[in-house]
Amino acid sequence: MYRVLIADDEYLEREVMKKVITEEVKELRLIGEASDGEEALEVVKAERPDIILMDIKMPNLDGLEATKEIIEFYPGTKIIMITAYNEFDYAQRAIKYGAVDYLLKPVKLEKIVEVLKCLIIKIEEEKLYNQLVKQSHDDSEESASFHKEFFAKEKKLFELVKEGEVDKIEKFVERLLNIIRTKDYSLVKFKIRIIEFLVSLSRTINQEAEIEICHFYFDELISESAEINSVDRFAEWVKDKLKIVVDKVSKAYDEIDDNVIKKATNYIHNHYNQDLTLKKVAKVVHLNKSYLSHLFKEEMEESFTNYLTQVRLKKAKEILKKSKDNITDVANQVGYQNANYFSQVFKKEFNLTPTQYRKQDK
């Protein structure tokens, strides 16, 4: 059971909280009450409670200062602040000092129950996490050896994830799990090694994509997999996680590609009159030129060069219609430094020279 201290200078508030602790949340045991911050400190020193329900406004020493002192000397203590609306800034400061949550007055019984039950779950998860991390750290050489052995495999798995090869991923995971089975790990160590692998994989994906696509956190995965009690069930859990990753990566890369093309075409429309090349535009959108060329053909159904040419020629036609500029000036205005070459490209597209087009339009 978890030991609880109530610190509040209002008798009725203490009675409500006592009712919750003694009747509503079976995992808790009341070990003391305090009506001010100094008294709360004394009880904490003597009883070492796991959880404290602490009012902010109390005589002698307020809840804020008491919280600061308790967290400094007993950092594992979970403190829930109780505050009025006009004391909300104090509650935020208490959170900064290390309080885990707050309740607003007048405190409702069902709200206290909800907050306490959530906190109990969090405490139990922390205990499991700390236990598993300790086991993992006790064998740091083994962990380092594992990561060295599976670094290349992680890169391969990343490529499969990026390509969306779900079937190949499942086979890859089976091979990986079979290799780890030969290490004769306990189930706990087995989980730790695979979860370390998943966390590292998520970092690799984000680094490669240069955006936040997915993130696995060690403590969250440990908690989520805590009730899995066989290697086979755990293997299925890992595959399900990777399917989620594949879906996120696929959607993210589709979005990235769409954004890249949009950015590239906007840049072309705004800079067509300059000496534009595939390499220059690729640099603007942070891609290599080969991949940008591939994207253009896939998304725009034409090459980069053809798209740029069409933009320039469309603008050239507008200028020829509206101005009397000579052909050399028109060519320069749409990005061609050589008027003869511009005329050749124009004629190839419209079967008319720029001069003939201007005359025909009139």
Automatic annotation (TrEMBL):
Q: Which InterPro entries match?
A: CheY-like_superfamily, Homeodomain-like_sf, HTH_AraC, HTH_AraC-typ_CS, Sig_transdc_resp-reg_receiver, Tscrpt_reg_AraC-type_HTH
Q: Specify the protein name.
A: Stage 0 sporulation protein A homolog
Q: Which domain of life is it from?
A: Bacteria
User: 4-aspartylphosphate is carried by which residues?
Assistant: D55
Name the SMART domains for this protein: HTH_ARAC (SM00342), REC (SM00448)
Which GO biological process entries does UniProt record here?
A: phosphorelay signal transduction system
User: SUPFAM superfamilies annotated for this entry?
Assistant: CheY-like, Homeodomain-like
Q: Which residues form the HTH araC/xylS-type domain?
A: 262-360
Cited function: May play the central regulatory role in sporulation. It may be an element of the effector pathway responsible for the activation of sporulation genes in response to nutritional stress. Spo0A may act in concert with spo0H (a sigma factor) to control the expression of some genes that are critical to the sporulation process.
Q: Boundaries of each Response regulatory domain copy?
A: 3-120
Does the keyword section mention Hydrolase?
no
Does this UniProt record's set of keywords contain Transferase?
A: no
Which key words tag this protein in UniProt? DNA-binding, Phosphoprotein, Transcription, Transcription regulation
Q: Name one GO molecular function term.
A: sequence-specific DNA binding
Question: Which PROSITE patterns has this protein been placed in?
Answer: HTH_ARAC_FAMILY_1 (PS00041), HTH_ARAC_FAMILY_2 (PS01124), RESPONSE_REGULATORY (PS50110)
